[in-house]
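Input.
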Amino acid sequence: MKKLFIGLLVIILIGAVFSCGTGKDNEEKKIPTSIDSTEAQNINTKNDSNTQNKAPERIYKNGIVFESSTDESYTVKGVLDKNLEEAIIPEEINGFPVKSISSSAFSECKNLYKVYIPSEIVRIGDKAFYECTNLSELVFDAKCCTDLNTDNRSFYNAGKDAKGFHVIIRADVDRIPGRLFSPEENKFTDTGEGNGHGAYITHIEFEDGCSCKEIGKYAFYCNEFLREIKLPESTTKIGEYAFAGCVNLSSLSLSQNMTIIPAGCLKDCKALNNVIIPDGVTSIENQAFSGCIGLQIIAIPPSVASIGYKAFRECDSVKEIIVPDSVTTIGREAFSLCYSLETVKLPVNLTEIEEGLVAGSQKLKTINIPEGVISIGEMAFSATRITSIRIPESVTSIGKMAFNCFDLSEVVFADARGWYAGRDYMEDSRLLDAKTAAACLSNSYKGVAWIKKE
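Output.
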């Protein structure tokens, strides 16, 4: 009996021990949720039993929070303290590159005065340095960062309280991404001004030997403190509206390796008084210099083949424009509202004078219509001081109000035959008299289109 009792007791004890061991093995392991230390630390985590994926790893270094990404890189996620003064982002962590700066990562770090962006950064998120108002220096070393989003405000109001900040572009940078320093609203309309303002940059320094080939669209748009730019000779391409709205920019040196002055590139750079267009440029695109009211000299090189619409509109200080004979097309309103303009020489190979070409250039007295021009657009010479003009034999159409000029007194038709003003046939005798022809074009029949019929 005693032996039986002892045997049962042993069996019970063994079962209890086995049961306890099984429960321990099945107990769920807890994942740490925070780390107090600001030194670089790894957080090894595991997901639940339904997945094999590894959770992101967070590291804290120099007051900055980093998180691992699936492409074996790290992303800047934020800061431990908004009073951070320097953001020196490392090239790599644990042997892996830092490639991205998250949206709002340094947003409203009011004491931040120095930032280093390393070479492998390819993405900068919205509001990354938003309202960093005491920023004084930015060293940009990102070799090939992608363009920022249309509504991006990465450096909005950055440097405002510091009265502007200095940007250093390192030698190995291939391109400056589009919209990097622009405000959120960064589009011009045909009739209005651009909106908003960008970062408070006072100076851009390209390191000696800089290999920067491209400056993206809207990159420095509406930087009101920027006064001087000297682009490296490596630069071959500038994006649309890259420097538009830099109202205090007074000096700009373009690379001699550029072939296109892009649309809106220097639109409304009101303080710009002189710019040399490189000899190799073949196209000056839409609104490129529109609103440059301080520009006094426009020297168009003989390499240029086309000039876009409103390219030099409202260049109020220029007095003379000589368009080289290499130019074959000039867009509408290209030289309109140039209030000091007195003389324009058009190229011999021009076949069409677009609408509003010099309209509203109220001091303009002298302009030629080249032989070979076929059509003259509406309001082409309207509201100018032209006193006399010759219409070549090649012209077959004249748009409404084309010669609605203040002082037009003589119009010489090289061929006065076959002209209709609206539905009215114009007798040869009326158009052979220069004064009568002027009265017809600028007064009696100015509101209708003129067509020449065989």
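DSSP finds three helices and 32 strands in the chain.
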